[in-house]
Each structure stands twice: as C-alpha cells, then as structure tokens.
Amino acid sequence: MSEGMTMPKDFLWGGAVAAHQLEGGWQEGGKGVSIADVMTAGANGVPRRVTDGVQPGEVYPNHWGIDFYHRYPEDLKLFAEMGMTCFRTSIAWTRIFPNGDETEPNEAGLKFYDDLFTECLKNGIQPVVTLSHFEMPYHLVKAYGGWSNRKLIDFFVRFAEVCFKRYQHQVKYWMTFNEINNQTNWRDPHPLLQNSGLQLDDAANWEEAMYQAAHYEMVASALAVKLGHAINPDFQIGAMLAMCPIYPLTAKPTDIMMAERAMQTRYYYGDVQALGTYPAWVSKYWQRHDFQIDITAADRAALKAGTADYIGFSYYMSFVTKATKENPDFVYDEANDLVSNPYVEKSDWGWQIDPVGLRYGMNWMTDRWHKPLFIVENGFGAHDKLEADGSVHDPYRINYFHDHILQMEKAVVEDGVDLIGYTPWGHIDLISASTGEMAKRYGFIYVDQDDLGQGTLQRSRKDSFYWFQKVVATNGADL
Ligand code: BGP
C-alpha cells in the first residue's frame, strides 16, 4: 500500500507533547505549582476538578506525568529512532517563574530546558516550543484572577523574553499560547481555567470575561512576537489554534448561517493573530450584548505590529451545528449548539473522526490568513493492550494516521497549502489533558503506567511506531 505523496524537502516530521502532561518532577528544580498541578484525575465520565491548591487525598496525575523529567535522554533516542526531525514540547512557566510574578527567573528551571534542547539537537531533532500550554502558575490565578487581569501581559512577556534570550540559538519555531481559541463558549469551568485561569462564579458573564481574557492574551502574544523578532530575526513565532471545522447539518440557509457564525466565533482569534485586527462582526456583537471590553489604542497597535509568522494548529475532529428557532440571532454556544455528524465514525471518547476535515481546514485557513501552517497536533486516543511479549497491535491508530496524513498530503501537493511540518500528538503515551487519564493513549510508544501512576514506566514500540518510522523515512511517500 503506497498511495502517499512525497512532501517538500525539509518538511518537519515530529511528535508533540506538553510539559505538564509528561514531565512529572512537579516539585523539582524549584518548580512552582501550575494550574495543571491542582487538577484532579477524571476518567469514566467523571470530569476533572480544579481544587483550591493541592489537597491531601486527591489524585493529581500531572504530578508524575510519565517521568520525562528524568528519562528524557532515553526517550529522545527512541524519538530519533523513529526518524523525528522535530519535537514539539512546552516550557513549564512554573519552572522559569515559579509564581509567575517574580522579577528574576529560576536558574535550575532554565538549565533543565537548556539540557533538554541540547540533547534534542544531539539527536538531530529540533525543538519546537510552546510558551504556554495549559500550565500557567497557579499563583497568577489566585492572586490576580488569571487573564482577567491586564497585569498578566507583563508577566507573560517577561517569561517570553527570558526564554527567547536563553534559547535563541537552540530554538527557531515558537508558539505563544496553545489552542488559544479553546476557551470559546465554554461554560464548563475547566477549559476556561486551563487556558485563562478564569474562575467564574455563576453570576459572572462568562462570555464577556472570555473575550476580555482572550484579548489580553492576544496582546501579550503580539508583544512577544515583536520582542522575539528583535532578539532573533530568524525566529518563527506562531499562533496555535484548535481547528475543528464546523459544518452545517443541512443545506438549509439558516443552518449555513449558523455554521458560519460558529466558525467566526471559534476562529476570530486567528483573524486577530494573523491579520492584526478584529473582524467587523466582533465589535458589533460586543455592542449588541453590551460587553465592555478594555481595549486601548496601544493594544490595537501592538496587535498590528506582532502578527504571527505561521499558524500552528491541532486537528482531531470536526463539529456540526444547526440553527434553532430559540436562537434567531445565531449566537454560537459551543456547549449546546453542536450535534452529531451522521456521516462519520467516533472514537471511544466521542471525538468525530474526519480526515477530509483536515484538508478542508487547511484550505480554509490558507485562503483566510495567507500564512504558512504547521500541524502541531493530530492523533487518535484509544485503549491499547500490551501483549506479554511487549508488543502493542494498534491498527486503528495506523488507519487514523494513514487517512489523515493522506489528506494532509493532498492539501500540500494538490492544493498548494504551505505546510511547515507535522507533529502527531502524544507520540509517546502521556496524561490526557481533558480526562487526566493514562488510559486514553495516543502514542507510537507505549508507556507502562496506569491511571493512578502505577507501573514500571517502561517504554515499548507499538506497531504504529514502525509504521510512522517508514512514513518519515520516505518523506510521506509510503503510507
Ligand atoms: C489538545 C491539547 C493537548 C492534548 C490533546 C488531546 O486539546 O492541546 O494538550 O491533550 O488535545 O486531548 P486529550 O488529552 O484530552 O485527549
């Protein structure tokens, strides 16, 4: 079977993780407590909870991750064996600024990433780095209200500056905020908290708060982009969006309008970060709903001056929406307005599997923002079975990747999309962000550990490991 197409020379093939989901060592090297450190395990339909600080008797899976903090030299060898030429990870903000508001960084934390990036480069793997991936210092949530507070801009920019300066010779590709748009329309406190550190009571206008927090984040991101380019003009600093295209359920014009408004609501972040300005509908929407968003002239200038060099994005699934008569103004509420797509399969966690949606999303973003793209997450969370001989047979994962990579290649080779690289999510099993489970596995590399952190932590190669190795070795030609 070889229907694949050869990708451009220098195309980056890699894997993606986030510090809080794999490092562990949560109290080592002077690290402070992050928002992820106070999130309990979920699983079996029970949502994760954010506790008020670390509480005795609760289970916090991000405390142990997969012990990458101690095992990274061994893991990087496996990544290199798979052929990876890049590795997307994040810098835990709390390793560099344990509380977030210090003026001096923590040297032990800086040294950890120095060593990690050096080890990556030794293995022929270039690091691709996210500055903030769901792991802001918990102190910033408690003492400042997270991104509801303008002061966070300065704290983030200081953090970015320290990282840019320290790693300017090791890292070229950066991203500011992971899935900045994933806080859109979430009444459930968990995604709001993880992205923005917002803890809203029932009385608060969650939507207004979300727009305000996102604005401060986007200003911080733009300032960081500008500063990064001054530190090293070769830096490529990207936005990072969760791309889930939203389709209309039917060809009914009102369904089409509803889907359009849903796309506008979910992706205005991309308009701001790629084009440097808010789209027209947003201000009208704020006026109509009487949202008082604090935006200064200096903010607008900063957004214009610090547009992203590329659009990094995750792609797991597509969504479907439809108009209802209770919602004549097409206000998009992600918690309530999504319906099932009758034409696609779902994963065990209900995520709709839609390879063509990847090609669709890539075309849509290219035509809208005219920036290079970088697929920095894509993958299939599944239950795996470790056989007695250490093997794991995961044809379902190979099928998922086969179908998605094929669509990615069509977007590049046939549609002319400018794509920097492809880093499958969780190429080594790690803690799930949404559920805190270990059982929701994405990896090509199996890690022997259960939901409670029990296991040998031994790494083994799944069938998909060898499959992906072949894809990389042929630059995408052999799928
Ligand atoms: C994205 C996050 C990742 C990652 C992934 C898979 O939203 O950027 O951190 O976890 O989704 O999600 P999950 O772990 O919930 O299955």
Automatic annotation (TrEMBL):
<comment type="similarity">
    <text>Belongs to the glycosyl hydrolase 1 family.</text>
</comment>
<protein>
    <submittedName>
        <fullName>6-phospho-beta-glucosidase</fullName>
        <ecNumber>3.2.1.86</ecNumber>
    </submittedName>
</protein>
<dbReference type="Pfam" id="PF00232">
    <property type="entry name" value="Glyco_hydro_1"/>
</dbReference>
<dbReference type="InterPro" id="IPR018120">
    <property type="entry name" value="Glyco_hydro_1_AS"/>
</dbReference>
<keyword id="KW-0378">Hydrolase</keyword>
<dbReference type="InterPro" id="IPR033132">
    <property type="entry name" value="GH_1_N_CS"/>
</dbReference>
<keyword id="KW-0326">Glycosidase</keyword>
<dbReference type="InterPro" id="IPR017853">
    <property type="entry name" value="GH"/>
</dbReference>
<dbReference type="InterPro" id="IPR001360">
    <property type="entry name" value="Glyco_hydro_1"/>
</dbReference>
<dbReference type="GO" id="GO:0008706">
    <property type="term" value="F:6-phospho-beta-glucosidase activity"/>
</dbReference>
<feature type="active site" description="Nucleophile">
    <location>
        <position position="377"/>
    </location>
</feature>
